[in-house]
Each structure stands twice: as C-alpha cells, then as structure tokens.
Design goal:
This protein is α/β, with parallel strands linked by helices. It folds into two domains: about 110 residues, NAD(P)-binding Rossmann-like Domain (Rossmann fold, 3-Layer(aba) Sandwich); about 180 residues, NAD(P)-binding Rossmann-like Domain (Rossmann fold), CATH 3.40.50. About 35% of the residues lie in helices and about 15% in strands. It has a seven-stranded parallel beta sheet with strand order 8-7-6-9-10-11-12, sandwiched between helices. α4 links the parallel β4 and β5. α2 packs parallel to α3 and α5 crosses α7. The longest helix is centred in the C-terminal third of the chain and has 19 residues.
C-alpha cells in the first residue's frame, strides 16, 4: 500500500506530478479549517504544507506514528513547531533560493509604488476623479540615487541590494552577523539598526520571524525614521507593529509604506485600510508562475526523497 501524503492547499501541477506514486489527498484552495486539517492528516506519512497552516504538536500527533516529513512550501517556517518535529524524528524542509529573485522583485515594486504614489493614482483614475494633469499632483520622492537600508541580509536581502545598485542607491544593511563578501560584491555597508533607520530614505525588511524579531519595527523605531522615508515589508507581518505603523503614517512621521504581509493575515489593521499613503498587496511576494512551480516542485521532491529513504534537498 502506497504511503499517504497530505497536501494542505491546491498547489501547481508541477509539484503534484512528482507525488503520483503516493496516495495523495489535496485539500481545497482556501485555507483548511482546523478540524478539517486534523481529520485529513490521519495516517499521513508526509505533509506538504503552506504558511497558512499551523503544523504543531497536535497536528503531528493526529497524523500518527508513520509521519516522516513536513515539507513547508515557503522559505520561512515559523508555522512549524520544530521542537515537536525533533521529538518525533520528523524531517522538516523548506523552499529556499528558488524564490529569492521573485520576492526581491515584489519588494522593489512596493518600494517604487509607495514612493511614487501609484496606488493613489490608480484609484483616482478608476474612480473618474482625474480631471487634468497638474504640476503638484501626486508628487513623491525620487528613488534614483537615494539611500536604501536593508534589514536582514540573506539571499533575498542581497537580491534587493542588486536591484538597488541599478538605481545607483547607497546601500546599508543590518544583520545578525557581518557579510563581508556580500559587502564587497554589492558595495553595501553594515550599520546597526538605529543608524540604518536614521540614515535611510527607504527601509526594506528581509529578516525571518523569530521571538527576537517580532515587532522589530515598533513605535520607537518608527520615530527614528525620516519624515520622507518609506518602509517596505515582504518578510513576515509580525515584524512590524501595524498599529504603530498606522499612527506613523497618519501623523506624517514617515512618508509611505508598502506591505505584502500582515500581523493577522488575511486581516489588515483597519487604520491601514483607510490610509492613502500605504500600498497593500495580498502576500504575493513569490507569486510568479515560474517561482510557484519551483516551490511546489522542491517541496514535492523533499517528500519523495524522505519517503523513499533518501536525504531531502533542503532540510531546515
């Protein structure tokens, strides 16, 4: 009898094709209800999960003793209880590298859109409110030649820096440790977080969510930013205190923000929804056709390898 694999959401066919030798259960396009998930996981040897599912000790217990692998179709894995997996001898994998460039594209898109007020402009056009060109209409700061501060200088942060070089930007970064090779390659300079916030025209967040990084950008950090600065977040929502950000945007303490992730997805802080100076995207950082295919493929390859007694490609 073939091993059971639970795929918690509908994923690209490129990944499903690699699981054809297993007994695969695919849940719906929407995030599954908790009870539905606990029932569907029974007897599964592998779980292909997405960031919307909490893969905790309860879910692993419901799967049973045959559970061998949790393949998270994401780079981040804050939705997976790693300690519970270790205790059960369950392998956890993620999908690094395949989405770096696409996510950096999204971050730079949000940076440009927030700076040049694209969201406001589109709403004016769609509502029929555009009456004529005007010299002061929807002016925003230049991006070219400005200073970019990157918080988290892993693969995605460095991909963001490569894009900034094309705009002749001065690049600062902060990270848990110095990245001297990347500094030399990209012309980036290390700075502590406070200095980076005080000196950057644009701040882009690319750090994983941990206990230390939750609300890394809060009231005090936003006070350090410049009134003309723009904040971009494509990492994880809870890294930013959304209430504090809404206040800073409302009071004009920073110019704008571009967000792809939120503290309580899919809920967004009500005040942010009312503001014109924030661009809001529905967590589409990796949403190119090619990249989602690669993510699904890598997650499926990890499951297939472990269930055949082989080593996975990208263990956490």
């Amino acid at each position: 009898m073939s091993r059971r694999v639970l795929v918690t959401r509908e994923i690209p066919e490129a990944g499903l094709r690699l699981l054809e030798d297993f007994d695969v259960t695919i849940l719906s396009e929407r995030p599954p209800e908790r009870g539905e998930l606990l029932e569907a996981v029974k007897g599964a040897s592998g779980i292909l999960a997405t960031l919307t599912e909490q893969v905790d000790a309860e879910l692993m217990q419901a799967a049973g003793e045959d559970l061998k692998i949790i393949a998270n179709m994401a780079v981040g894995y804050d939705n997976v209880d790693l300690e519970a997996a270790r205790e059960r001898g369950v392998v956890v994998t993620n999908t690094p590298e395949v989405l770096d460039e696409t996510t950096a594209d999204t971050a730079f898109m949000l940076l440009l859109a927030a700076a040049r007020r694209l969201g406001e402009g589109e709403r004016i056009v769609r509502s029929g409110g555009w009456e004529a060109w005007g010299p002061k209409m929807l002016t925003g700061p230049d991006v070219w030649g400005k200073t970019l501060g990157i918080v988290g200088f892993g693969r995605i942060g460095q991909a963001m820096a490569r894009r900034a070089r094309g705009f002749d930007m001065e690049i600062f970064y902060t990270a848990r440790s110095r990245k001297e090779d990347a500094e030399n390659e990209l012309g980036a300079r290390y700075a502590e977080l406070d200095e980076l916030l005080q000196t950057s025209d644009f701040v882009s967040l690319h750090t994983p969510l941990t206990e230390e990084t939750k609300h890394l950008i809060g009231v005090e950090e936003l006070k350090k930013m410049r009134p003309e600065s723009v904040l971009v977040n494509t990492s994880r929502g809870p890294i930013v205190d959304e209430g504090a950000l809404a206040d800073a945007l409302t009071e004009g303490r920073i110019f704008a923000a571009g967000l792809d992730v939120y503290e309580e997805e899919p809920e967004v802080h009500p005040s942010l929804l009312e503001l014109e100076n924030v661009v809001l995207a529905p967590h589409i950082g990796s949403a190119s056709i090619e990249t989602r295919d690669k993510m699904a493929t890598l997650a499926a390859e990890n499951i297939s390898a472990v269930l055949r007694g082989e080593k996975p490609k990208t263990p956490v």
